[in-house]
Fold:
Amino acid sequence: MIPLNPLVPGRAHRQVALPSTLPSSPDLASPYRPLLTHMPPPLGHQTALGTAEAERPPPYARADLRSASSLADRITTSLESDHRNELRAAGLLGLVPLSLGEDADTSQLPPPRGELHAKVMLGRADMVAAVRQWRRLKVAYDVDSDLSESLADMEVDTNFPGEVLRQLPHPDPLFMLRKPVVIPDADGAPSEVLGFLVVGRPALNGVCSTTDIADELPLYMISVLVRPAHGQLGSALLFASAAAGTTTVKEMVDASVHLTEQAAEGPRMARSATHDYVRRLSALVISHMLYLCSDRPDVRPTTAVGAPRAHGSRNGRRTRIYQMGWRLGPAISAFHRKVERLRESTVSLGGTVVPHIRRGHLHMYLHGPKKAWKKTRWVAPTLVNAALFGDEAHGVVVPVF
Structure:
């Protein structure tokens, strides 16, 4: 069983891993410095938010009616608020600018109440810093639910260059899932993934823009907003590597789970169910990032950027919303309906060959002078051996946008 967070008695702070991501700096308060020594880069961390959040009305019950900009604000606020409040109560909000690599006076920071307390506070500072990094440009992708479903089911064993993950079209993006993706949590109960935020992780720990990740440690830090079966909003902290070299989705996810096991530092990850939950979260996040980084993704800007914030608000910048998969997603859904009708027709006529679909997958191809350049394209689901079904298979295809 995953233990309760000892920092907040009576509140179910469930831990998958406890991150420590404070940048090494001469200004760093000395009690926190030893915690960074021999600390592997953690990939998984989940903690449910407090009971006050659980008592509020479900924020995503009518997500389809929310404007995209207000949904983006809601997701990022939910990712940040509990961690910010705990840091403020502990007098450790000063850790946040350090996590962002900014100058800060650490002389007034109180000493940690033990190693576990310090690790948790450093992890909270990272979560808050990630949202503050996002607010500098406020880019959000409004993801079509049918595309999300297809990405979650994509093939995981096709080869592609790992550095493709560095080709995010916009810095520090937020992915918004209007129809939450449901995956079983560590207890087997349904857990909804509502969205996730991607930022960079510099070589000296902490948080940076995705445009600033270094070749020496090309890592992304991903804050995932989840809603477990008990209804309390929670967050999970994951990592994805964009290291160069041939890889597969499965290998990327395996690397993520391995880092999580290293960072767990105890029996938390010993449960295979917890291991599987982190794997499913990582696969969902990585598949969406890879699609966005592929050649010619279905991404279009929208004018629905929301109204300006009131004077004195935290950030008056408008949120830039991009529709992701709003053409491709419905086309994939229509394709599956056509295949199902073809399958029913084939069976009713006594056909021996049942229509089979190849799932969406990444395809690497060479181009340019002497075919020296590589591109990766996401190929939508396709009907295998369509010619066997004659005219009935005509039009059973996902168009290219």
Summary: The two ends are 47 Å apart (CA to CA). Residues 1-65, 304-313 have pLDDT under 50 and may be disordered. Residues 68-89 form the longest helix (22 residues).
